[in-house]
Amino acid sequence: MVEHAQSFLVVDDIDVHYGAVQALFNVSLHVQAGEVVGVLGGNASGKSTTLKSVLGLVHPSRGRILFEGKPIQGMAPADVIDLGVASVPEGRRVFPEMSVIDNLMMGAYPRRADKAGVAADLDAVLTAFPRLAERRKQAAGTLSGGEQQLLALGRAWLRRGRLVCIDEPSMGLSPKFVDMVYEVLFQWKAQGQTILLVEQSARIALELADRAYVLQHGHVILQGKAADLAADPAVKKAYLGAA
């Protein structure tokens, strides 16, 4: 059992298999309320599988996952979301034939009884993302990749999750859109939002995160405060492009 049983989120010594192939080996991590925790690593390191395990998209073959003290391993994704988890998935996963507004409102569906709160948050999202406001009636599938990433963030914003799980937010985006996305994430951090962030771009993730874990071949090989990892020669060489 990991030492942080009272943490907001605990991933405790999990293994995950895809058929006969093992993707995670004894992976443990924890997230405190109000923290931003990064999960870093290269391709096929297991970082996205770790996030999918939290969301119920894959189920560990061993170990536990606790959200606010409640075991959630093996739960269906919809049930995990109902507990107060929001997701910004890899590849955005917008509903391409639905309008921008309808996509945003899908995020607010669990809060549908709170009409005033949803309306206020929708106004806030459209103010923060003028591109989405300009394209509010446009089909989401016609947006650029960067605009779809903003839409996925806005959808999670409307969910008002106590934990937001974000998978590769910078993937495939131009530097301009990466800056826009991370500007929002820094704002969320300042507001005390709890975030579990999977990111291949270690440099910017370590600027945002309070702590981070580095995965390689399904194993946690490094963990610690983000500032310490950013200064670690091994991390610099492997993930930050240092000579």
Features:
243 residues; alpha/beta; Rossmann fold; 6-stranded mixed β-sheet; 38% helix
* N to C succession of SSEs: EEEHEEHEHHHHEHEHEEHH
Shape label: globular
Total strand segments: 10
CATH topology of the largest domain: Rossmann fold
If strands are numbered along the chain, what order do they take across the biggest sheet? 6-7-8-3-9-10
Low-confidence stretches: none
| Helix content class | 25-40%
What is the architecture of the largest domain at the second tier of CATH? 3-Layer(aba) Sandwich
Q: CATH homologous superfamily name of the largest domain? A: P-loop containing nucleotide triphosphate hydrolases
Number of domains: 2
Return the CATH class of the largest domain.
Alpha Beta
Q: Classify the beta-strand content into a percent band.
A: 25-35%
Classify the oligomer: single chain
Radius of gyration: 18 Å
Describe the structure in your own words.
Pfam families: ABC_tran. Keywords: Amino-acid transport, ATP-binding, Cell membrane, Membrane, Nucleotide-binding, Transport. Residues 9-242 form the ABC transporter domain. There is one protein chain. The protein is α/β, with parallel strands linked by helices and 243 residues long. The protein contains ten helices and ten strands. Strand 4 and strand 5 (70-71) form a beta hairpin. Helix 3 packs parallel to helix 6 (145-159). The termini are far apart. The mean pLDDT is 88.
